[in-house]
Amino acid sequence: MMSGLSHVNAKEPPALPPNSAPTAVAPELTQQLAPHEVLIASLALDLDDDLHYAPGLLALTAARLLVQHPTDHSWSEYALDSDLTLEYRDHAGVATLELRDAKHTLSRWHFTLEQHRAARRLIEDFNRIRDGRVRDPSLETTCPTCGGPLAAGDECPACARAVHTPPSTWTLLRLWRFARPYSRQLISGFLLTLAATAATLVPPYMTMPLMDKVLIPFGNGVPIRFDLVGLYVGGLLGAAVLAWALGWARTYILALVSERIGADLRTTTFDHMLRLSLEYYGGKRTGDLMARLGSETDRICVFLSLHLLDFATDVLVILMTATILFVVNPWLALVTLLPLPIIAWMIHVVRDHLRHGFEKANRIWSEVTNVLADTIPGIRVVKAFAQEQRESVRFRDANRRNLAVNDRVNAVWSLFTPTVTLLTEVGLLVVWGFGIWQVSRHQITVGVLTAFLAYISRFYTRLDSMSRIVSVTQKAAAGAKRIFEVLDHVSSVPEPVDPVRIDALKGAIELSNVGFRYGSRAVLEGISLDIAPGEMIGLVGHSGSGKSTLVNLTCRFYDVGEGAIKVDGIDIRALAVADYRRNVGLVLQEPFLFFGTIGDNIAYGKPDAGRAEIVAAARAAHAHEFILRLPHGYDSLVGERGQTLSGGERQRISIARALLIDPRILILDEATSAVDSETEKEIQGALDNLVRGRTTIAIAHRLSTLRQANRLVVLDRGRIVEVGGHDELMALKGDYFRLYQTQRRQIEIDEISWTPAGLEREA
Amino acid sequence: MIETKSNVDFSLKRDLFGRLVAIVKDGVEKVGVVPVRAFPISAPTAGFALLDAEGHELAWLSDLASLPRPDREIFEQALSAREFTPEIRRLLEVSSFATPSTWTVETDRGPTRFVLKGVEDIRSLTPPRLMVTDSHGVNYLIQSLNLLDRHSRKLLDRFL
Ligand SMILES: Nc1ncnc2c1ncn2[C@@H]1O[C@H](COP(=O)(O)OP(=O)(O)O)[C@@H](O)[C@H]1O
Ligand SMILES: [Mg+2]
Q1: Beta bridge partners of B124
Q2: Whole-number mean pLDDT of chain A?
Q3: A68 forms bridges with which residues in the sheet?
Q4: For A544-557, how does the pLDDT look when each residue is reduced to its tens digit (9 = 90+)?
Q5: Fewer CB atoms inside 10 A, N or C side of chain A?
Q6: Is domain A521-735 classified as CATH 3.40.50.2000?
């Protein structure tokens, strides 16, 4: 009994207080239970009567319903009589469960939607026990949380993936995944950099003997040995040429790699994005996604290929120089390194500051692109309502916020770099002073000091550039975070781990007890419907009743919240998404055409279709003739979103597109609603061709378009209220009858006001 | 100019199931009526409606003063029973600055914890107010950044 309880609690963590609710309640509940009383279901209540957060508990056993009230933690119990009912409803994220008998409400409890599924199960068990039924064995093979099919080992693949784990913050290290394919080039780039840097380290070393063996002896009266000068200067030249050659090779290789890593990053992210469900796109802004894919990937690839290596070489050079310095003179070397800890501390201070700043700048940059992505496609509306000024202000505001954020980052940044420079300058002075003091005490030669100074300037330059990298790194880290937010997002329509293979579907669709909600809004509830292969179902109901949502679920654009959708007896969540969609043809109210030719658009779902096939599909869709009348026929360009065509023409092309893939299941969502009745007649002919022999779910605003349907299904506020043929439903005088009457009247009014008599009457 | 006037010709009561009942013209009783605010966030005290169980408008009230006393209390009580927009007073902790992120907050309805799915779920209403939507669709209100303490502001700033 205890294990049963903790099991439920583990699945359904209560809201807050974090640890008090389940663990604190559990022993108390045990006390409440009779010796052999078994807990069947429980539900953590997390809101009191005034909707304040407070923990409570609802527990169901075979004989009673036990309640610990959130308000005062007292317990009550209700024996399970046959006239008790539990009523569930939710609104704005708060669910309410009401216990009623025949005459009045006994009690009412509130909880947040987090406990929604536990509540559903409790109600199911409650009803079952009250009615003396046994548990449905099919429940054992479905996930208790989402109702989906369970994989081996009683694990639900969908739920296992829906965990809310944030992406790791070590995003820069995770970028290695994109750099790895180029590790060979990167390593050779690194070695080249190393060699080039080593070559640049030779000249200062040569100044030492040049000073001590040539110039200073000359000052003391010894004639200059030109053979030595030739040797050393030749050495200097050789080193410079070598450094040049190596530097060229390195830059070339790294530039190539950089572009490739950037391309990989972009394509991988885009591929991943394409696999995400409609739910993801519902919440995202186009401009934001475009910014992530565009500018941020670019920044990351530059970082990976150039700055990261620069940084590595900087570190190496600093280490190498430091070693040389220590070998030459440890005391002087120690003085040289003085600014280092200060710089390290400064980096530590500004680093987080910079990254937050850059993250913010990225987000605001997205806002700038968002305004564009909003305004450009909607330009007709903007102009029609003369709101250019308003959009301009919006864009300007976004830009101003962008400036403000960048200004703040730059304030930090602009102070940081000069400070590092100042520190190195001061360091140089200290070395001069300390060096001259050492020369005066004959501890080092002048040559050693000049070499030292030559090294130090290099050393400090590196330190400078290394500190500059702090900014680039943080910029890349900010970008990488946003890229990984996309890459880490698991599709809410997950691919099954072990998909059932299907060749051709027969097209039987079975909806069993389907429920769905957008956020906290329940849109569909308890939808059950069997559709035979080849049957045509007309889906009718008021706007907003959930018709489109139902077909979205059937297409698996979203996964059902509860229940299951099966085709030919297989849960669609067990099929590979692409396999399944290949069998589904979809015609929407607003057909979307892609930039390209009409032929390409018709062949969109079947790119390898032959020309004859395309023409046949267009013919069946009654699109052939109007296409031929266009100056370039099937090769005519349709413009972005198909804007060069009329609504009816676009619709017929989208019908041809659906026809070409020859789907077993066809979905028409208000396919003729956006066109006038003349065009509708033409499209109707096309649709009749399309529907023939396929399982069809058709939504139509004009009921007359559904005359061919075998059955009509009437939806009202997310529930099926009536099912039957036209005559049957008319005889019922219910919702359908009323819908039909309203439309009849509407049509009559239209007809009257458009006939000359009607116009006269109006006048 | 399009204008809507208040039309108050109903009275309210509750039945034994606790449901709201409106008694309209000729003593007809409509069971399960629902009071709503038209602008629950931007103007919570301007514009109310009473909807019937099917969601059709029974009455429009431009302000509650037009309702007689006992009805007004029932109306307000029914409104508050349906409203759930906790106001965030303090952010105690966020699990990560990358989304999805679990926030632990203090609200006017007590402490709670929720999952923020993405930064786009933080929306700016009429400034300076912000609205945060969690993974279950519950909305939380933040009256103003300036009313939050330093720690909360700092945490929140990372998402704005
Ligand atoms: N992406 C969405 N997010 C939130 N709510 C939605 C979304 N799409 C539809 N809805 C809501 O769900 C309900 C059903 O919508 P829909 O299925 O499109 O209705 P219908 O097609 O019958 O007109 C509507 O009330 C609508 O406001
Ligand atoms: Mg629709």
Answers
A1: B130
A2: 81
A3: A57, A75
A4: 899 999 999 999 98
A5: C
A6: no
Measured between alpha carbons, how far is A663 from A583 in angstroms, rounded to an integer? 5
User: Residue A685 in contact with residue A674, Cβ under 8 Å?
Assistant: no
Greater confidence (A14 vs A30) lies with: A30
| Chain B residues close to A47, C-beta within 8 Å | 109
Q: Where are the domains of chain A?
A: 27-134, 168-487, 521-735
Query: What number is the ipTM of this complex?
Result: 0.88
Q: What is the pLDDT of residue B99?
A: 76
Instruction: Compute CA distances A628 → A6, A658, A659, whole Å.
Output: 70, 20, 19
Take atom 27 of ligand 1 and give the residue whose Cα is closest.
A544
Superfamily of domain A168-487: ABC transporter type 1, transmembrane domain (1.20.1560.10)
Residue ranges of B 119-148 with Cβ closer than 8 A to chain A: 119-121, 133-139
CB contact (8 A) between residue B115 and residue A169? no
Q: What is the chain A residue with the closest CA to B133?
A: A519
- β-strands A536-541, A695-699 pairing: parallel
Pocket test for ligand 1, best of A277, A523, A527 (most atoms within 8 A of CB): A523
Q: Is the CB of A547 under 6 A from ligand 1?
A: yes
Joined tokens for residue B132: 């945060």
Please state which architecture CATH assigns to domain A27-134.
Roll (2.30)
Residue pLDDT, tens place only, A598-615:
998 999 988 888 899 999
Structure tokens at B1: 């100019």
The tokens for A619 are 């013919």
Euclidean distance between CA atoms A656 and A676, whole angstroms: 19
Could you tell me if A729 and A736 are in contact, meaning their C-beta atoms sit under 8 angstroms apart? Answer: yes
CB contact under 8 A, B136 and A17: no
